[in-house]
Design goal:
174 residues, 6 helices, 57% helix, DNA-binding, DNA-binding protein, KilA-N_DNA-bd_domain, DNA binding
Length: 174
């Protein structure tokens, strides 16, 4: 078994949900690939026809600001333009643009992370469906229990007996 070049958990933490897509930002990918962000962006721009809108898109300035505030980065310095967001297909295409052994190995780990997240999401959806079905099923059963509890709460007309321990033959006077 080959040693992982990047821990899968690190990749999974970098995957964001933006515009309904699971994406990785160019700056995170550059770190994973071991290149500068501008180098990655230049390679993408030279091969723009390989990256349609469903493979890669620019974030809006508002979304960039929102991410900056969530990640707690400084507004001093930094980028002058919004980052690119790469979908799973865009990341796969990057392996053909960044043709190095590290890029290939990192891409394999990123693809595995996307697959693992997809499995987790589908298992969570299945679990949610089962839970909803159980709630419907048990609501009816719990309704019957509530009815029994309500009946038990109604005081019954019973004879009052003295409280305490009595031995045979002893009589207690009240």
């Amino acid at each position: 078994m080959t040693r992982l070049i990047i821990p899968t958990e690190r990749i999974e933490r970098a995957i964001l949900l933006i515009r309904g897509y699971k994406v990785l930002l160019d700056q995170d990918l550059a770190v994973l690939y071991g290149v500068e962000t501008r180098t990655l962006v230049q390679a993408v721009k030279r091969n723009r026809n390989r990256f349609p809108k469903d493979f890669m898109f620019h974030l809006t300035v508002e979304k960039q600001e929102n991410l900056r505030s969530q990640i707690v980065t400084s507004s001093w310095g930094g980028r002058r333009y919004p980052p690119y967001a790469f979908t799973e297909q865009g990341v796969a295409m990057l392996s053909s643009v960044l043709n190095s052994n590290r890029a290939i190995r990192v891409n394999i780990e990123i693809m595995r992370a996307f697959v693992r997240l997809r499995r987790l999401l589908s298992s969570n959806e299945a679990l949610a469906r089962k839970l909803t079905a159980m709630e419907r099923k048990y609501d009816k059963r719990f309704q019957a229990i509530f009815e029994v509890i309500r009946k038990l709460m109604i005081p019954a007309e019973t004879e009052h007996r003295p409280i305490g321990f009595q031995t045979k033959g002893s009589s207690r006077k009240e």
